[in-house]
Design brief:
This protein is of the alpha+beta class. It has 3 helices and 4 strands, in the order H-H-E-E-H-E-E. It has helices at 2-15, 17-45, 82-90, and strands spanning 63-66, 69-72, 107-111, 114-118. The strands form 2 sheets. The chain has a two-stranded antiparallel sheet with strand order 1-2. Strands 3-4 form a two-stranded antiparallel sheet. Helix 1 packs across helix 2 (17-45). It is elongated.
Length: 130
């Protein structure tokens, strides 16, 4: 019975070549797009999961409203220094460790007796800080 189905399918493919090519091409493109979207979603969901505390890592973004336009900064967020103390005291359940960094020069991030020097224009930290 399965052999009969294959014969019928082959006859249809040979008889309607152009229609079959269009159908198979569309199916191949659809599967390729679905796989790429799935890989993209997997990559987005696995971001920062190398860190054991990845569920508690957060980045604060600055939102500005100027002349009716809303601007959300994604690259260079500049915050006042007292913000770190405010986050530590009033939001201690959400922020255990707060570090502020500057973009213009190299900076030192410290916790207890450990120190980490980060060169300018970098926002990376070693695993001991995370």
């Amino acid at each position: 019975m399965f052999r009969t189905y294959l014969k019928i399918a082959w006859r249809y493919l040979v008889k309607n070549r152009m229609h079959s090519i269009i159908n198979m091409g569309g199916l191949a493109i659809g599967i390729a797009v679905a796989v790429l979207v799935g890989l993209w979603i997997l990559d987005e969901l696995s971001f920062d999961t190398y860190n054991k505390n990845y569920r508690t890592i957060a980045q604060i973004a600055r939102k500005e409203i100027s002349k009716g336009d809303v601007y959300i900064s994604d690259g260079s967020n500049h915050f006042p220094i007292p913000l770190a103390g405010e986050l530590r005291t009033n939001y201690s359940d959400l922020f255990n460790h707060v570090s502020l960094v500057s973009e213009k020069s190299s900076h030192v991030i410290g916790f207890n007796d450990s120190r980490l020097t980060v060169p300018s224009r970098s926002s990376t930290a070693s695993a001991m800080w995370l």
